[in-house]
Write a structure and sequence with these properties.
By secondary structure, this protein is an alpha/beta fold. The protein contains 9 helices and 14 strands. α1 packs parallel to α5, α5 packs across α6 and α6 runs parallel beside α9.
Length: 383
């Protein structure tokens, strides 16, 4: 049996079940995004986001340029520098935010709190009197924070959270998060290039009381004359969005509501992770990269090849083996784009977000055994 849908990419991710281009017939194509119809569509996307994610009414939601990357950079460039900052990183995207804070913003009072792939850093080290930048779910390591209990309610600093592979699959405690960013191309299977930023009242207060010492490009500016540009959070975007992509996001949000909203989305992602957990528990050649089951991602599931023969190879040879395994699966048309991220340890990364059907993962699992055995046999022949 083959997966009916072999698309297990970690971004852009597979479309919702049953998606067809006809879902986009209501898009405001050829119309200005500043016209009544365009602003109405953007406002609808914002309010559906609030509804599905359970965002508090006093938090602002804005659609911004350049995917999740643009949203995170907007937050960092606009908010950091007022006080010291703790930068958490346990995979490549978190490490990228560290690099930008240190080498681009050149923040002097910045602490790095890091961990290797597969682990979380010691969260007890974080000082919440400082600002804190972190990813909720490490997309390239498959390691997530299990909950927001490590964040105090009474904190002096701001928490800036990159939640791009967590939003719509993991419940985010908005009372603990001052900035949340994501791209709708992940868990909801939307199209790329647009980001979403969610600001708490504390983040807005910082924006209106603090001016960074560096120039801000137009696409990062959230204030004018010391006041928040409220229009951004009502659908008046900074630059021109794709109304086709907006319509697709609205369709995905309506689908999310039809399956039970956030609870339904989380249930689907958890169930998908369960398929892989059951598979790994009964295999001796593969294991989760995440060392603690409580921190396993239910979206970007990262697996290591632990077979002793493969594990004894040097890093380039391990990477070549993993690539050969993935190539076999792609050639059979059963799994596309499941290789580990380029900066991560060699292995597999299988997307299990809510748009993935459990039946497709169940069909894929035996093929993983087949591909491993075939790739190992080829390795033996070459020896």
């Amino acid at each position: 049996m083959r997966p009916a849908n072999p698309r297990f990419s970690s971004g852009p991710c597979t479309k919702r079940p049953g998606w067809q281009p006809q879902a986009l017939v209501g898009a405001a194509l050829g119309r200005s995004h500043r016209a009544k119809i365009g602003k109405a569509k953007l406002s609808q996307a914002i309010e559906l986001t609030r509804d599905v994610l359970g965002v508090p009414e006093n938090h602002r939601i804005g659609i911004v340029p350049a995917s999740d990357t643009g949203a995170v950079e907007m937050a960092m460039w606009s908010l950091l520098g007022q006080r010291g900052v703790d930068l958490l990183a346990w995979e490549s995207f978190g490490a990228g935010w560290v690099t930008d804070a240190l080498k681009q913003l050149k923040l002097e009072d910045a602490r790095q709190i890091t961990a290797p792939y597969g682990s979380l850093p010691d969260l007890a080290q974080v000082d919440f009197d400082r600002d804190v930048v972190f990813t909720w779910n490490g997309t390239t390591s498959g390691v997530r924070v299990p909950d927001g209990d490590f964040i105090p309610a009474n904190r002096a600093g701001l928490t800036i959270c990159d939640a791009t592979s967590a939003a719509f699959a993991q419940k985010l405690p908005f009372d603990k998060l001052d900035v949340v960013t994501f791209s709708w191309q992940k868990v909801l299977g939307g199209e790329a290039a647009h980001g979403v930023i969610i600001l708490s009242p504390r983040a807005v207060e910082r924006l209106e009381s603090y001016t960074p010492p560096w120039p801000l490009p137009k696409i990062f500016r959230l204030t004018k004359g010391g006041k928040l540009i409220e229009g951004i959070f009502k659908g008046e975007t900074i630059n021109t969005p794709s109304m086709l992509c907006v319509e697709d996001y609205i369709d995905a949000l309506n689908w999310a509501k039809s399956i039970g909203g956030l609870d339904g989305l989380v249930e689907r992602a958890d169930g998908n992770l369960g398929v892989i957990e059951a598979f790994v528990d009964n295999r001796d050649w593969v294991d989760f990269l995440a060392t603690d089951p409580a921190t396993r991602s239910n979206t970007s599931v990262c697996l290591s090849i632990t077979d002793p023969v493969i594990a004894a190879l040097d890093a380039p040879a391990q990477a070549a083996f993993a690539k050969s395994l993935c190539a076999l699966l792609e050639a059979e048309g059963v799994a596309f784009d499941i290789g580990a991220y380029r900066d991560a340890p060699p292995g597999l990364r299988i997307w299990t977000g809510a748009t993935v059907e459990r039946s497709d993962l169940e069909a894929l699992m035996p093929w993983l055994d087949w591909a491993f055995a075939a790739a190992k046999a080829d390795l033996d022949k070459a020896a």
